[in-house]
Amino acid sequence: MGRMGVKKVPIFDGEGNLCFVGIRSQILHYRNINRRTRPTVFCGENHIEEFLMGHFSSMFNGLAKSFVMKKGKSSNRCSGREAAEAMAKEAKKNESLLCSSGTVHVDGSNNFASVFSKKGQKGVNQDCCIVWEEFGCQEDMMFCGIFDGHGSWGHFVAKRVRESMPPSLLCNWQETLSQTSLDQDIDVETEKKQHRFNIWKHSYLKTCAAIDQELEQNRKIDSFFSGTTALSIVRQGELIVIANVGDSRAVLATTSEDGILVPVQLTVDFKPNLPQEAERIIERQGRVFCLEDEPGVHRVWLPDEESPGLAMSRAFGDYCVKDYGLISVPEVTQRNITSRDQFVVLATDGVWDVISNQEAVDIVAKTQDRAKSAKRLVECAMHAWKRKRRGIAMDDISAICLFFHSSSSSSLSLGQVNQVGTLK
Predict the structure, then answer these.
(1) Between the N and C ends of the chain, which has fewer C-beta atoms within 10 Å?
(2) Residue 420 pLDDT > 50, yes or no?
(3) CB burial of residue 44 (10 Å; 0-12, 13-18, 19+)
(4) What pLDDT is stored for residue 8 in this prediction?
(5) By the 8 A CB rule, do 298 and 291 touch?
């Protein structure tokens, strides 16, 4: 496509004047005028609809149309995929998208994310993360994802899924919005919230299916015996949508009526020994059992071979066992954030194998500098691993801590934090 700023797209500014801007300046322009008006985007003589249900930027549609018009023909990919990828590149330049250890905080936003990842003792770090503030140029939206690769190509698979999921989800969400109409008779707020969640759920299911299919056809990455888990959340206003494929975990920290900070586990660890997971695997001729030297660690095996021995029942890739019960279908759930909800922790199993939900919440809450909260949690997990699992190679350990409120308001409502004992 060439340089980002070359393609010119006409938009109306906040005063109703028509102007032509490049993709980069258009995104920055949109962020500036979003609070004042809802801009309408045009491409040629085609009028692109205004905000879909008041949630999605018409700028995205204008960008999508401009990409399709430049191609001159329809594409098998979603018409907005390139536009979403362009947004991701711009977000990275503007430091509102993070793919490594660090922090993300956009001026004026209550969201604050701390990210940290530490290589284990098994070779290359196969964990990776992403945080995208103002997801899709929406000021009230944020995307967080954490991915845990496995197998010799696991780090490549994890990074590929990290790269593909946000723009694909954004594209499918926009497409679903454009095809879905809200019943005008719906005036109950709970029904509206459910309708909004259903759109996200449909978008996630479609996205994960497409990613797994694309991965299987990718000749540059050998994912037959390698794969990755994927845990992600989207925050849209006071709604958080959680999608989980694998055994990473999301834990919410909320204040009880007694003023105690307590954990609420938002996801299921999809292990092969879960009844519904084991039933599916066995029905498809796969096998689930533990090795003699790993009692309690259930793994997925081929019908007639002692491989691959996956410790999770859902994952992207791993096509050697996709016909034997392994799936990449996410569990998608929701939660409406209240003033009691303080932060959410997303972490790979390297944390949860040695740290309890309560310990994780307490560690993060007691870290005075929010920017260091994820690092502190990972370091505590490393110490716990050495103490509890001596002689076992330490796994890669990664965490994202997403805070919902500004530090000043949060400090007044965190409540009493339980003691963590030896993990202080």
Answers:
(1) C
(2) no
(3) exposed
(4) 37
(5) no
- Give the mean model confidence (pLDDT) for residues 413-420: 44
Q: Is the pLDDT of residue 414 over 70?
A: no
CATH of 88-282+309-319+330-423, one of 2.102.10.10, 3.30.750.24, 3.60.40.10, 3.20.20.140: 3.60.40.10
Using one digit for the tens of pLDDT, what is the confidence trace for 155-196? Answer: 999 999 999 999 999 999 999 888 876 665 666 777 888 889
pLDDT per residue over 211-262, tens digit each?
A: 999 999 999 999 999 999 999 999 999 999 999 999 999 999 999 999 999 9
CA–CA dist 347, 247 (Å, integer): 10
The arithmetic mean of pLDDT across residues 350-366, rounded, is 98
Residue where the block lists tokens 């140029």: 137
Q: Are 233 and 241 in contact (CB under 8 A)?
A: yes
How confident is the model at residue 92, as a pLDDT? 72
Give whole-number Cα distances, 323 to 161, 213, 227, 270, 287, in Å. 21, 14, 15, 18, 12
Long-range contacts of 59-65 (CB under 8 A, 24+ apart): 59/11, 59/26, 59/27, 59/30, 59/137, 60/84, 60/87, 60/136, 60/137, 60/170, 60/174, 61/174, 62/9, 62/11, 63/9, 63/23, 63/26, 63/87, 64/171, 64/174
pTM for the whole structure: 0.80
Instruction: Tell me what pLDDT residue 185 has.
Output: 60
- The tokens of 217 are what? 């056809």
- Condensed to tens digits (0 to 9), the pLDDT of residues 23-79 reads 334 444 444 434 333 332 323 333 333 333 443 444 455 444 444 444 444 444 555
Spatial neighbors of 296 by CB under 8 A, at least 6 apart, are: 290
Give the domain ranges of the chain: 8-76, 88-282+309-319+330-423
